[in-house]
Write a structure and sequence with these properties.
alpha/beta, 43% helix, 8 helices, single chain, 5-stranded parallel beta sheet
Length: 231
Amino acid sequence: MNNALILIVEDEPEIADIIGTYMSREGFRTITAGDGRVGLEHHLRLRPDLVVLDIKLPGQDGYEVLAAIRRRGDTPVIMVTALAEDLDKLQALRIGADDYVVKPFNPLEVVARAKAVLRRSMGRGSEQVLRVGPLSVDPQAYRVAVESPTGPVALELTRTEFRILAHMAASLGKVFERSELVDACLPEGEALDRTVDSHISNLRRKLAAVGADGLLTGVRGVGYRLDSPHV
């Protein structure tokens, strides 16, 4: 749960800033969007661990954004809104919200609910080991191994290298631009596109050392892709 990325979709900048500040104090990374369209773009591109979503948004409202997120997968979503009617809560929960907070709220309550929802979602996905050819990535245990004739060989990766590999393994075959990997995987102090090249180079070297070379490839002028040899 440490360093989880939280997407805050809220059209009132002051409220978004308050939520983001309190989340950051607890070690979460945050990104904000002021409307539903941008929120969905961030969700698709960055694959956040949790979405904090307002209902009353310009353009697409929160219900529409939530429905779109649910069509894509099971990203945890907490609805934050001034609407306190039971029917509004029931509609949000029916569409697939994981929790619901009513304005005005205590920011600490939002943080506490975010932690609880993340713990539940991590429990749901604890068995989901990602496999790419001979490579296996366990996002919950922070463990990477490569199958060899004598059994699995563990890879010693830095935390950032692991984040990059796990992020790419979750979307097998997708070409990731450097900027996407910076936003999703690198701490603020490393947020430079050229830093991605260094991490990728180290990952390639470590994979090649255990017989898994060729899985992580570069796409000239675009970015990087993680591919199973059978894809």
